[in-house]
Specification:
- This protein has 329 residues and is of the alpha/beta class.
- It folds into two domains: 265 residues, Vaccinia Virus protein VP39 (Rossmann fold, 3-Layer(aba) Sandwich), CATH 3.40.50.150; 49 residues.
- Helices cover 36% and strands 24% of the residues.
- Helix 3 crosses helix 6.
- The relative contact order is 0.13.
């Protein structure tokens, strides 16, 4: 998965003229601030300047785009008749969800209206500059609203509502009302995305329980609406591989030409989606003569071993990936 050419060009333009050493320093400072001040994020501004926003674009935007794209692809697969015309991105940052939702594999052809809620002025300014590079009218003319999500906020309902990497930046006591409000604004589907860490998964689990309690229908990744079968100490998450540019490698001090962004998410819909028997929740282990799969099903977590002797099923199993739906007995 690559960033759209227009978005990559916009980011490069933002970072042009900044010496790599300066960006590395800014990235280190912003990364440290997120690690140490995340629980205070609802009260302390983590992105305080244009320099901070540039650092975010360099070190976090590509990975966040990858996670959002991965989650949205699962939604599209489960809701093939869902063609949202409006998007509400809550806690939008520089508009990463907006760009991902317009990917050619997703809803580029149907989205007409985009509303983005964001607190940080530097992020809004960056988002508008990035959007100016797009050839899509819905991105160019997106409505940006300066909103503090810990306070009262209001907007109309939208077909697709997203909150990516937001719950962890809210006080724990504010999350229930926040999730309730997200669902109230959802006309079609809602997706909540968090880091693929144990703490991020716990937040997703709680959101899942709340949305089930108000009658939401799970779209993805869960193949059922029963209790989550993950054991204590384990967590459900997925991975999206993102190519790294030369500058991206420099600011992240990485040698590889890619990174794997781990994320946890849950998506709910007002309407039922396609049913699946299970979901692959770990990298498939392809061995000589068999494939071993860890699959989440309505009966719990199952280790499926598919032998080469089961020719048709074996061919299917070899093509499965982490996050793939499974539909065979």
């Amino acid at each position: 998965m690559d960033l759209p050419v227009e978005l990559r060009g916009a980011i490069d333009s933002e970072l042009a003229g900044r010496p790599p050493k300066e960006l590395v320093k800014l990235v280190e400072e912003l990364s440290s601030r997120y690690r140490t001040d995340l629980q205070a994020a609802a009260h302390e501004r983590l992105v305080k300047s244009a320099d901070d926003a540039a650092a975010y674009a360099a070190f976090r935007l590509p990975a966040t785009y990858g996670a959002v794209y991965g989650a949205l692809c699962q939604i599209k697969a489960q809701l093939p008749e869902f063609h949202p015309s409006s998007l509400l991105d809550v806690g939008a940052g520089p508009g990463t969800v907006m760009w991902a939702a317009h990917h050619r594999d997703l809803w580029q052809g149907s989205l007409e209206k985009v509303t983005l809620l964001e607190r940080e002025p530097a992020m809004i300014s960056l988002g508008k500059r990035l959007a100016a590079w797009s050839s899509l009218v819905s991105i160019q003319e997106a409505e940006w609203m300066a909103v503090d999500l810990t306070e009262d906020w209001e907007t109309s309902s939208h077909d697709l509502v997203a909150a990516a990497y937001v719950l962890g930046e809210l006080p724990a006591g504010a999350r229930r009302l926040f999730i309730q409000r997200l669902w109230e604004k959802t006309a079609g589907a809602l997706v909540i995305i968090e880091p693929g860490t144990p703490a991020g998964f716990v937040r997703i689990q709680k959101a899942r329980q709340m949305l089930l309690a108000v009658g939401g229908r799970i779209v993805a990744p869960c193949p059922h609406s029963g209790a989550c079968p993950m054991d204590a100490g384990d967590w459900c998450h997925f991975s999206q591989r993102i190519p790294r540019s030369r500058l991206h490698r420099q600011v992240k001090a990485g040698e590889l030409g890619y990174e794997d962004e781990k994320f946890a998410f849950v998506a709910f819909s007002r309407q039922p989606g396609e049913t699946v028997q299970g979901r692959v929740v770990r990298h498939p282990q392809i061995r000589k003569g068999h494939v071993r799969l860890k699959v989440c099903t309505s009966s719990g977590l199952t280790d499926w071993v598919v032998s080469r002797k089961e020719k048709d099923v074996y061919r299917q199993a070899r093509n499965l990936k982490w996050g793939s739906p499974v539909n065979w007995s």
